[in-house]
Predict the structure of Tc1-like transposase DDE domain-containing protein.
Amino acid sequence: MKSKEHTRQVRDKVIQKFKAGLGYKKISRALNIPRSTVQAIIQKWKEYGTTVNLPRQGRPPKLTGRTRRVLIRNAAKSPMVTLDELQRSTAQVGESVHRTTISCALHKVGLYGRVARRKPLLTENHKKSRLQFATSHVGDTANMWKKVLWSDETKMELLGQNAKRYVWRKTNTAHHSEHTIPTVKYGGGSIMLWGCFSSAGTGKLVRVDGKMDGAKYRAILEENLLESAKDLRLGRRFTFQQDNEPKHKARATMEWFKTKHIHVLEWPSQSPDLNPIENLWQDLKTAVHKRCPSNLTELELFCKEEWARISVSRCAKLVETYPKRLAAVIAAKGGSTKYCLRGLNNYAHPTVQLFICKKMFGIMYDFCSTSHVHTTLYWSFTWNSNKIDSCLWL
């Protein structure tokens, strides 16, 4: 509710008593008003020489300071609260305002509507395991991490898009060819890749034909792991990193490592943010999709070419800064960190697309409809297996 405004008579009495030599505290007690109010009245009188209400600039704000603070507090306390819920909360205190007014108030304090990042689900056991891994390795030397061969698999999609694409266009031209991005059902096909790298550069990148199982995984290791370690000059006593997928931890696979005398790094589950190869996958997808491969054969070729082009300095930097990842896990007490690059793989369904689109851009739609804006930036809505590319009003 709006704070109480004192009458002209009360303000004049404050000035009279001030002129008589009374201090702020005595005036406050005599008139039974807060000391801060007394101070504000006197300061205004000193500056403008009057106690009358001065002309205000512009229209008074729809939201009072108190309601604005409540909105900000609710949004900070419950980040997933919707504008509709905040709007209803203002109506309950007698201040019915538009969604746009609420969003503007939140924007002024740096709160913006954004799509929540997708992070691996972490149980308490996962967090405990991640924290134990980080604390046990945070003191390891830089030379130790240089001896690690990092590995992982990733899926590359044909005609996928990894970057936002915006178009300037007029109304009713959304389907013109120059305003669209060509897509193929199910992304036009995809390939699965296995790769590895160390601080000395990238190792082998191999296409996985068919479904990956334990036998196929061991065949890939047999043909590529030791050769990659040799090419990267890791020596005999290097450490191999892999995640905890069943085919990786199968008894036959672990026996293979034992037979080859390869030390395998103990890895906490649900920890893609601790594997720096995730950054290289992102680099690879961005580079390949810029070349627009037209078929799966070209896709594989471009992947291998771009993988070979990744600089040694890029690889070395990722390994050099690895202690920062461990520190981030420790700071988060085993929780998620900013280093996780996993996308929105589970949100490719059209219903979910529409839901997120409405949630993210409801503010823009409301603004355009209520402000009679006729010239609008129109966008298109595209997806791939990793993230939303762009979400735009059609």
